[in-house]
Amino acid sequence: MIFTKTARLLTTAAFACAAMPALAQEVEVLHWWTSGSEAAALNILKEDLARQGISWQDMPVAGGAGEAATTTLKARVSAGNPPVAAQVLGMGVTEWATEGSLGDISVIATEEGWDAVVPEAVKRFATDDGKWVAVPVNIHRPNWLWINREIFEEHDLTPPTTWEEFNTVAQTLKDAGVTPLAHGGQPWQDATIFDDVVLGLGGPEFYRAAIHELDPEALGSDTMKAVFDEMRVIRGFVDDNFSGRDWNLATAMVVNGDAAMQLMGDWAKGELLEAGVTPGEQVLCVPAPGTEGSYLFITDFFAFFDVSEENQSGQQAMASALMSPKFQEEFNLIKGSIPARADVPSANFDSCGQQAITDIAEANAKGTLIGSLAHGHAQTPAVQLAIFDLVTEHFNSDMSSEDAVEELLHAVEAAQL
Ligand code: GAL
C-alpha cells in the first residue's frame, strides 16, 4: 500500500518532469489565524513551504476560536469545493472524518513515525478508523489567568488560587477604579470563562461528568448553580465596552495596564511576545483559579480534505512540514502553545511555556488532562453551540442561576436529539 502510493506519486512527478514544465504546487489553506502573533506563527509554515517550491494560497477567515471560519469551511465543503487543508479543532476533525470528507495521510505518517511521538490524547482526534486524517501542530491550554504584575504590586495583591480569592482581589481592584478583568463578549470567550469556573469550582471529575458525559445529575447540581452564581459575579468585573471585543484587544488591555487580568488560553502569550513583553515577568501566568493540577487542552489541527490527485502531493508536503520537529519548535515559540510532538526540545521555551510542559506531563500522569468544551475538544459542535448560547445569554441578562441550570439541561437534551 505504502509502496503503491509512493510509486504513484513518483510516477506522477516523473511524468510531470518529462512531459511538461514543472507544475508549481499550490496549497490553499483556510484558517483563522489573523492576530499579530497568529499570523507571525503561520508565516513560519508559509516560508517552509516556499523553500520547497510550494506556494501558499491564503484563505483567512477572521474570528477567534474559528467561529466564522467553521461556517465558511462548511459552505466550501458542501459546495464541493474544499480547500486543500483547513485549520480545525478536535471534535471538528472527528465530524469531518465521520462525514467522509477527509483524505488519508497515513502514508506519510507511517514513513515519519508519527505514532510514536504524538500523545494519545491528541492522536485520538487526528486519526479515524486507524487512518491519519489531520496533523496536530500544537497543544494550547485554555485555563490560564494572565496578570499585570505592576497593577498587582501597586495594590499589594497576590495571584488568586480560588474563585473566592479571585472575587476578593477583583473587588479590591474595582473599588480602586481599576478594571479587574479584560474580556471580550463573544460566545467562545464567555465559554472560555465558563470552562474555567466549571473546572475550578467542581474539579476534574465534575468537569468530566457535566461537560464530557453530560450527566444530568451533574448538569442540574448545586455545583452547577454555583458556577452560574460565579459567572454573574464575574460579569460585574468587566468594563462597559466588553461586548464583541476581540480576545487580542483584551490581552492588549492587560499589557497596557488598562485592566489587571484576563482569563484566556496561552495564545494570549503569543500576543505578549509580539508586544515585546516577557511572559512570567511583566505579565504573570497562573492556572485559572481552582484549576491547578488540571490541564484543559486543545490542539489546532490541519485537516486534509479529499481533493483531486494533483493536489495530493502538496498535501503530503504540507503534512510533513507541519510535523517536522524544527517547525513545531519555531512555530510554538511564537504561538504561545507547546508542541504536539513529545520529542521537541523544551529548552528554548519561556517560563510559562516551561510550566505548561511540566504541568501537562503531571496532568497526563494523574488523569487530569481534559479536552476543553469552549475549544472544541469535549462535545459535538451541536452540543457545544447549545451550551455557548445559554452561557452567553446568562452572562448578558439577569437570568437566575436556577433558571440557567434548568435551561442548560433542556438545551443539552435538545442538542443531542
Ligand atoms: C483557538 C485556537 C488558537 C487561538 C484561538 C484564538 O481556537 O486554537 O490557536 O488562536 O483560537 O483565535
TrEMBL record:
Its main location: periplasm. InterPro entries: Bact_solute-bd_prot1, SBP. It comes from the Bacteria. Keywords: Periplasm, Signal, Sugar transport, Transport. It is found in: Periplasm. Residues 1-24 form the signal peptide. Part of a binding-protein-dependent transport system for a sugar. Belongs to the bacterial solute-binding protein 1 family. This is Probable sugar-binding periplasmic protein. It comes from Pseudovibrio japonicus.
